Amino acid sequence: MMCTPHWHLGRYDNHIYDVQGVFDETVRQLHAHNIPLKLALGAEIRMCTEIVQWAQQANLPVIGQWQSKPAFLLEMSHSHIPAGIENLLMWLKQHRIQAIIVHPERNRDILKHPEKIKRLHDAGAIFQGTAGSFTDTFKSDVQKVTWQLLEEGYFAYVASDMHDLSRRYNQMAECRELISQHVGDEQAQALTLTIPQSITQSINWQ
Ligand SMILES: [Fe+2]
User: Which residue, 132, 138, 143, 190, has most beta carbons within 10 Å?
Assistant: First the structure.
């Protein structure tokens, strides 16, 4: 399980020093209770100018590698595509750091104009879809755009984005089944298993 706490300055003021201790304690508890679950520590980072600084200081929490580049999860605001994001993506591209934009299907600009995702793709981003967006966790327009983006080939892979056991639970199994029915089992397996596995295999699992 890849742990991706929000880093959202002003809202979730997490930094590596805050989350590392909690993560280490969680790993200790799993071992103490003989729970055979491996964890790794990443983050979901809300777009901000500090990303450049964190990258320069090698403090950017990565979830693995994409095409031999360190890869991290980048979150846009839900309301719109943030101003300046293409500049940030191009800076990251020049510095051989891969931005994975999470749940683009829940961004209201993209919901209204799905074609706007192309600008982000062309600036170097890849995209992580949320399993619950394929089912009916979010509003129906999210579900519709999610399937459209899948058909257009925008999702590099799908993740649970699990937050809890009730409202935002792990929906990977039902999502995989739905994708399999739509586009076949081979693509479903790649999107939900083999691609995430290949990205995260290089990371420090504990
Ligand atoms: Fe998010």
Answer: 132
